């Protein structure tokens, strides 16, 4: 490798000493400058983390989607909590009015099917209003009373009404199909509402995780008693739900039941669809668990299309710089997690997760990088072509002027036709040479030019006979190849002599050498370079 670098270094140094045309050299300088600026820009982009498909880009995309999800879910939870609290107050007032009109107390509800039916009928309108708000998939209330205290399951069987949407296909649309899930059958017939195929007269409170806890509620504000259950399966159905439960108080301010709303897994899927991004689909989860591990079987999962996420097993979250890493054991995800300001019946803190599969990110990242690299390569090629064009445009008039000076013959008046390159310095030199062309042959030269020619002539005396021979070839207009052929030596030998000639004559390239030769020729003193 060191030998290769040595050869490259020698070739570049030799190339510079032999001489390169002005256009090529200018093109090389411009191209090097463009390449340097381009490379520096790429390094800055990579260090700043803004390369397409970078971790920072992914973190920004996740943050935007996660913030939108947290905002939407927080707003939905707050709305449902407010409506559930309002429903609890309406139930308390309506229940008190019904009991007063019937001249009975709350304890008289037990074993009184007619009074229970009357109360459920009075509360039905409030319950339907909450459900029709289209912010949930179900609404219910449960009161601590039963139609038959002597039944085998009387300890956990409690009166109430449960209304649900069925056959959900969209969220927020009007005229959703409503079914009667729990409550007196006479009420369903009276309201002309279809009964669920798993209908039951009363609730089994042993299946409601927070029922017993809320019956011992002793706080002053109902909002302090609002709790969410984890996801569980409705008995005798295929549907999973989570419930928001709020205590219902009697006329004495004592808890006598609960009410609230339902969010079914289907409703959650429709509410939080898979979010498309340039890195793949993102899925929304509402989870609970200890530490950084969450049970997916108890989590509400949004539309998981394209994310390979299943509602089983544990998912573990680990912190990162731009996002967090989640793993289910078989699949890794990138995402963000934010605690939700809500209470769970289990006492744990609910978390909102936004996840994106690692595989989707890597595929999209590779695709984005390929497109970016292809675009930058095309941009670089265009810049280099432009550099070549600009260099050619800049050097062309100079080259034309030099050639015109070499080929031009004086006119009848001793003056040459005007030659203009458009560059003031070159035009000034050409103008001077044109105006003084004949004069230089017969009169004394300006002191500074005379000194310059004498110094160059002095340097020519330093050449060896072999170098002088090659120099004479150059004076006659030969290039390196032609000089080698006429001298019967190799091109490498001529280049070696040429390098030494340039060094001894203190010129950098062939163009500069030929400028001196042309000056001697125009002054009629070319023979001075041939005689030693």
Here the CATH topology of the domain at 58-265 equals Beta-Lactamase
Shape: rod-shaped
CA-CA gap between termini: 47 Å
Tell me the major beta sheet.
Answer: 8 strands, mixed
> Structural class, from helix and strand content?
alpha+beta
Q: Describe it for me?
A:
Helix content is 49%, strand content 17%. Helix 2 runs antiparallel to helix 8 and helix 3 runs antiparallel to helix 4. By secondary structure, the chain is an alpha+beta fold. Among the domains are: 208 residues, Beta-Lactamase (2-Layer Sandwich); 92 residues, no CATH class. About 4% of the residues have low confidence. Strands 1, 3, 4, 5, 7, 8, 9 and 10 form an eight-stranded mixed β-sheet that branches. Strands 11, 12, 13, 14, 15, 16, 17 and 18 form an eight-stranded antiparallel β-sheet that branches. A two-stranded antiparallel sheet has the order 2-6. It starts with a helix and ends with a helix.
Give me a quick take on this structure:
With 532 residues, the protein is α+β, with helices and mostly antiparallel strands. The chain has helices spanning 2-18, 22-48, 55-102, 113-132, 185-191, 211-214, 265-271, 358-407, 424-435, 437-442, 447-460, 465-475, 480-487, 491-505, 510-522, 527-530, and strands at residues 138-143, 157-158, 160-165, 178-182, 195-200, 203-204, 227-228, 232-233, 240-249, 255-264, 275-277, 280-287, 293-295, 300-301, 314-318, 324-327, 332-339, 351-357.
């Amino acid at each position: 490798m060191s030998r290769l670098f040595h050869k490259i270094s020698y070739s570049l140094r030799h190339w510079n000493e032999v001489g390169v045309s002005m256009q090529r050299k200018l093109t090389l300088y411009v191209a090097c400058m463009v390449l340097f600026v381009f490379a520096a820009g790429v390094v800055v982009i990579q260090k700043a983390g803004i390369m397409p498909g970078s971790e920072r880009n992914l973190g920004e995309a996740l943050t935007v989607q996660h913030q939108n999800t947290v905002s939407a879910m927080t707003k939905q939870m707050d709305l449902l909590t407010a409506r559930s609290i309002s429903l609890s107050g309406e139930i308390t007032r309506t229940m008190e009015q019904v009991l007063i009109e019937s001249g009975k107390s709350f304890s008289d509800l037990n074993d009184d099917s007619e009074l229970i039916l009357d109360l459920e009928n009075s509360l039905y309108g409030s319950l339907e209003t909450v459900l029709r708000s289209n912010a949930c998939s179900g609404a219910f209330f449960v009161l601590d009373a039963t139609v038959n205290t002597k039944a085998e399951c009387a300890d956990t069987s409690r009166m109430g009404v449960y209304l649900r949407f069925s056959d959900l296909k969209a969220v927020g649309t009007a005229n959703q199909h409503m079914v009667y899930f729990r409550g007196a059958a006479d009420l369903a017939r009276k309201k002309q509402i279809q009964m669920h195929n798993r209908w039951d007269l009363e609730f089994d409170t042993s299946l409601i995780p927070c029922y017993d806890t809320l019956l011992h509620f002793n706080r002053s504000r109902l909002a302090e008693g609002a709790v969410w259950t984890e996801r569980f399966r409705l008995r005798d159905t295929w549907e999973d739900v989570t419930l928001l439960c709020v205590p219902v108080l009697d006329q004495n301010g004592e808890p006598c039941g609960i009410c609230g709303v339902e969010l079914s897994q289907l409703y959650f899927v429709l509410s939080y669809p898979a979010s498309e991004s340039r890195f793949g689909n993102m899925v929304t989860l509402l989870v609970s668990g200890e530490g950084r591990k969450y049970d997916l079987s108890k989590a509400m999962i949004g539309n998981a299309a394209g994310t390979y996420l299943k509602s089983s097993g544990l998912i573990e979250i680990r912190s990162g710089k731009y996002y967090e890493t989640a793993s289910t054991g078989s699949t890794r995800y990138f995402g963000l997690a934010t605690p939700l300001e809500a209470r769970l019946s289990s006492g744990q803190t609910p978390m909102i997760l936004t996840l994106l599969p690692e595989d989707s990110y890597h595929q999209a990242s590779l695709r984005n990088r390929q497109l970016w690299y292809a675009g930058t390569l095309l941009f670089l090629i265009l810049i280099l072509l432009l550099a070549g064009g600009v260099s050619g445009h800049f050097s062309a008039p100079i080259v034309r002027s030099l050639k015109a000076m070499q080929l031009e013959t004086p006119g009848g008046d001793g003056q040459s036709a005007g030659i203009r390159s458009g560059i003031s310095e070159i035009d000034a030199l050409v103008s001077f040479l044109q105006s003084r062309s004949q004069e230089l042959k017969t009169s004394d030269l300006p002191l500074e030019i005379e000194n310059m020619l004498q110094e160059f002539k002095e340097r020519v005396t330093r050449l060896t006979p072999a170098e002088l021979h090659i120099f004479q070839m150059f004076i006659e207009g030969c290039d390196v190849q032609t000089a080698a052929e006429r001298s019967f030596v190799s091109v490498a030998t001529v280049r070696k002599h040429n390098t030494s000639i340039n060094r001894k004559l203190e010129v950098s390239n062939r163009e500069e050498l030929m400028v001196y030769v042309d000056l001697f020729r125009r002054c009629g003193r070319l023979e001075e370079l041939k005689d030693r």
